[in-house]
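Teaching note: in complex prediction, the entire set of molecules is handled at once rather than each chain in isolation. The prompt given to students was simply: 'Predict the structure of this complex.' The entities are:
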Amino acid sequence: RAKQRGRDTFHIFDPDHDRLLQVRHEQRQRFIAALDNNELCLHYQPQVDMCSGEVVGVEALIRWQHPEQGLLPPAQFLPVIDASSLEIDLGEWVLETAMRQLTRWAKNGIALPINVNISPTHLLVSDFSQRLAALLSRYPHVPPAMLKLEVLESAAMHDTQAALETMAECQRLGVNFAIDDFGTGFSSLTHLRQLPVNLIKIDQSFVRDMLSDQDDMAIVESVIYMANRFNRPMLAEGVETLAHAKALIALGCELAQGYGIARPMPAEALPMWLTHWPTREDWKALTH
Ligand code: C2E
Ligand code: MG
Ligand code: MG
Ligand code: MG
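The expected output is the structure of the full assembly:
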């Protein structure tokens, strides 16, 4: 049988390819151990209302506290589990961890919704919404609207029908959606109109250079205009400076997130960060 297949797929005899598969396998095993050993954690990045400066929520961002390599960002380990069932295991862990965090913050008087990034593989699991319902029922004191799901524009476009149905089911549970990295996924306006999303997040690549690149400025401006016309809240990612914030406010951008506001931080650091964040008056003075 190997001989027969070997005619057109000679690479199965390629030792380099075998080695690659072996490395992949070892990396996955290491990741499974990390999940079991509690080496993963979530950091949280605040999202603010541009008008009032009010903190309206946080985005949960996965980190790996690797015993030898230190704190690893997702770009260094998510590719290893790409399109495998481990993405689903990770996704469930992230959702559960976010729900526990919401419970803990509620006890400390912090009522900020958490945005969780959902991978396309996870969203398209056939019983995604049932699993989400089960999760919510384990945390009866957490209102479903405190959990928001961020889905990549490209994911929502990939298997549109299935994604749309799942998203609608989740919304019936009271869970809202944000469309992440908007502008990078080639969705048409028709698609956008169909998508049951409550927030459009314009990709940071456009925001970063908007002050120096006219094309990027035009894209940011158009997305803000369109979101306002469609009556959809929109958020600018990658707001790194006050100049960005001021320009976005002038364009009518509602919400923002970025290093200029706060870097992602451990859950324990958030209460202190909140106490230092400007009041409504200070924000007005700062941005106007
Ligand atoms: P994303 O969801 O678009 O998250 C925004 C990324 O931009 C984060 O990188 C954040 O730290 C970074 N960022 C925020 N503000 C700024 C800024 O002002 N300037 C710059 N240069 N970067 C900024 P991070 O944490 O490395 O995450 C990268 C991506 O990994 C995320 O992009 C998301 O797609 C994915 N990811 C993160 N956490 C999870 C997770 O729990 N599950 C899944 N499936 N994906 C995740
Ligand atoms: Mg995101
Ligand atoms: Mg994004
Ligand atoms: Mg991104």
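Point out the following to students. The chain has a mean pLDDT of 91. The two ends are 72 Å apart (CA to CA).
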